[in-house]
Amino acid sequence: MGTAQGLYEGVALGNEGNVGLITYMRTDSTNVAEVAQVEARQFIGKEYGPNFLPPMPPVYKTRTKGAQEAHEAIRPTSVLRTPASIQQYLERDQARLYELIWKRFVASQMAPAIFDTMSVDIAAEPADGRNGQRSAASQEPTYLFRASGSAVRFQGFLAVYEEARDEDAAQDEEGGKMLPPLTDGEPLDLLKLLPEQHFTQPPPRYTEATLVKALEENGIGRPSTYAPIISTIQTRGYVERIDRRLHPTQIGFTVSDLVVQHFPDQIDLGFTAQMETKLDEVASGERGWVPVLREFYDPFAAAVAHAEKTMAHVGQGDEPTGDLCEKCGSPLVVKFGRYGKFIACSNYPTCRNTKSFAVKTGARCPRCGGDLLERKTRRNRIFYGCANYPTCDFSVWNRPLVTPCPKCGGLLTVQGKQSVAKCTQCEEEVELEKLEQLEAARPVAETPHA
């Protein structure tokens, strides 16, 4: 939201001076000004051709009931300012965010894409061992394989922007895969046969993106509050971000259990959505604010009073680290404070020695051999750095693995959807399943006798 605010307030574009690049961004409106649609249609017709223009400018409806539509949809102030033309004036995050907004807006004004749904039956006949042809005397059956998917007939808006599929979406659903152009009776070479078996999976952990989508679908919050919500639950230690997913912590489970027990009405999804609607009605003058507040506060105050009397005090137990304090020799323990975990002396308050908490990954720094630790940036983004910092400043964004690269022995890090690991030295890519097999086959070193 801070980056978007900068684009909205304006960026210096050389001789043009300070220019606001996007419209007001704290809105969930889908309305677009007529002058912006006309400009977009002229640009699309010139750059991509008339076939990419729908007969009439599209009109979209908001998916959220009670959406705040006082402003326009989030869009570039001028579609003629392409991302490439102003990239030199923008910081990295500004350029990426502007490109996303620009592409989504232009794509929203283009003609839809057209797909052909395909189902291909592939016959595989047994062949003899001499020339690969089917033997006339062979009585073996013909095997039939089926592939389903789709093929693009007309690109439409996909020429500009294609929304990424959620990594948890089923890849084998009907029409879910893109197939190459095929003709009836075309001979095919068997390159690889992949038998796949799928089992029912539990719902995946939320990512930041899917959590925002869930909030939007349930009518909770507004565009201006999504970022603070995600920031708050991480800053207070209710969840931690591991491999792009939000995993609840022990304190998160504890707080959730207590709140569910003592404030069941207030944390109900319907309650929050109804409160948003009532506040919108107060803003439009349909309701008085005093009755709305009284309707909320009276039962809430009673619930708070009851919780103060009956809620049990639940503390986070200290975890021993196995190390001793450098100042007094007492055991060091892991404590949980307002800003997350930290290490402190168990002899507190006599000894006030504290240090930051670092999670060891088990991997070694490829430069100096030190431990690679899990660390966080000021914006709470996880990265992995050498324990010997600042003497050694090696760091990576992707999670490092203990298993070395099978090709050069370098450091492997998990890539993308966590199915492939890549070496930071030789850039060799290895499937994680294969790594597990290599690790299982590795002989265990025996401890020599004294």
Topology:
Layout: H1 2-9, E1 11-12, E2 18-19, H2 34-47, H3 83-86, H4 92-108, E3 114-124, E4 143-154, H5 208-217, H6 223-235, E5 239-242, E6 245-248, H7 250-262, H8 269-283, H9 289-310, E7 319-324, E8 331-337, E9 340-345, E10 354-356, E11 359-364, E12 371-376, E13 382-386, E14 395-396, E15 412-415, E16 420-423, E17 429-431, H10 432-441
Antiparallel strand pairs: 1-2, 3-4, 5-6, 7-8, 8-9, 9-10, 11-12, 12-13, 13-14, 15-16, 16-17
How would you describe this structure to a colleague?
It is a single chain. The chain has 450 residues and is an alpha+beta fold. Among the domains are: 2-108, Orthogonal Bundle (Topoisomerase I, domain 4); 210-310, Topoisomerase I, domain 2, CATH 1.10.460.10. The chain is 28% helix and 19% strand. It contains ten helices and 17 strands. The protein has helices at 2-9, 34-47, 83-86, 92-108, 208-217, 223-235, 250-262, 269-283, 289-310, 432-441; strands spanning 11-12, 18-19, 114-124, 143-154, 239-242, 245-248, 319-324, 331-337, 340-345, 354-356, 359-364, 371-376, 382-386, 395-396, 412-415, 420-423, 429-431. It has a four-stranded antiparallel beta sheet with strand order 7-8-9-10, with no helix packed on it. A four-stranded antiparallel beta sheet has the order 11-12-13-14, with no helix packed on it. The chain has a three-stranded antiparallel beta sheet with strand order 15-16-17. Helix 1 (2-9) packs across helix 4. The longest helix has 22 residues, at 289-310.
